[in-house]
Each structure stands twice: as C-alpha cells, then as structure tokens.
Amino acid sequence: MILAVGRLAAQKDFGTLLAAATHWRDLDPEPQLVIAGDGPLAGELGRRATALGVDAAFLGRRDDVAELLASATVFVLPSRWEGQPLILQEALRVGAAIVATRVGGVPDLVGDDAAVLVGPGDAQALAAAVRGVLADPPLAARLRAAAAARGAALPTPADAVAAALAVFGDALARPATRR
Question: What pLDDT was estimated at residue 169?
C-alpha cells in the first residue's frame, strides 16, 4: 500500500501523486494507492484518478492515521509547500518508509537518510522514487530505521506543552515595564 495523508487541497498536490501512480501500474502486484483526508478537492481528485485509470482509494478523514502509516509499504508526501508537517512527524514516529518533496522544513525534518526526497510537482521523479523503494527492500528497511530514529528524537506532545508553559512562566515572572 502506498499511503498519502492530508487535506485534499492544492498545497498537498495529490494530483501529482495520481499522475505518478500511472507509472507503477505495470508492477506485479500493482500497489494500491490510498489517500486519507478530506477537503475541497475531494471530488476533483476522485474524477482525476478515474480519468487516469488509477485505482486510488479515498478514505476521507480518519482517526487511525498511525495504524495506516504503520501498515503502509511507502508513505508519500507530495506537497508543493510545507512548514514542519505534522503528518511527516507522525510518519517518522512510526518508522515509515518515506518519499517526500524537498520543500519547506521537510529536508530538515527528515535529515539526510530518513526519506527519499524529490522536487515538487515532478510526477516522474515521484514515481521513480516510489518504485525505487518498492523494488529495494534493503533501502526500505534503511529508510524505516532512520525514520524511527529521527521520530524518537522529536519532542513529544508533553515536551511541547512543558516548553510553552516554561516560556509563559518566564514571561509572567518578569517585572512589568512602563513605557
């Protein structure tokens, strides 16, 4: 299963992912493309998948994303732009084999070895990267191990709350200044 998760909006560029999927239809067995999420482009993406002849399952909004990530053969983040995507942090935490676009904070988040990165909007490069991971089990295993290591080093939600409370506490402890 090739999994993508996110809001079905232009930023996430699932259209390029659908175009990439046309390049792996010859694989036996053909990988199942699964997209979890909802958004304004849901209908358009469904029609595009049909027009391209891509067997894509659109799951809608899900509460079991961690389980989906853990069961995916490859997780793909095809975004045109990102900051520090939460879904990528989740993929790292579960040790997913990741193919993503080299945009925004993605390269810093995955480091040098936890993902295969390609340029945004390039369906052929995205397809080649996914095929490469599917065809090379040792590469997939290295990606999973590196992702799990990076994911383990990420701050936990409790760490984030503690840091925010510490900043808030420091601000309250400072004497007020008059202007």
Answer: 83
* CA 102 to each of CA 66, 134, 144: distance values in angstroms, whole numbers, following the listed order: 23, 20, 18
- How large a percentage of the chain has pLDDT more than 90? 83
Domains of the chain with CATH codes: 2-154 (3.40.50.2000)
CA-nearest of 99, 90, 110, 107 to 133 is: 99
Counting every residue written for the chain, the total comes to 179
Buried b (16+ CB within 10 A) or exposed e, 13-40: bbbbbbbbbeebeeeeeebebbbbbbbe
Neighbouring-strand partners of residue 4: 35
Could you tell me which residues come within 8 angstroms of residue 138 by beta carbon, excluding any fewer than 6 positions away?
none
Is it the case that residue 108 has pLDDT exceeding 80?
yes
CB neighbours of residue 45 within 10 Å:
21
pLDDT for 179 beyond 80: no
CA distance 57 to 155: 32
C-alpha–C-alpha distance, residues 16 and 123, integer Å? 5
Contact 34, 4 (CB under 8 A): yes
Give the mean model confidence (pLDDT) for residues 169-176: 81
Q: What is the pTM of this model?
A: 0.89
Give the pLDDT score at 178. 62
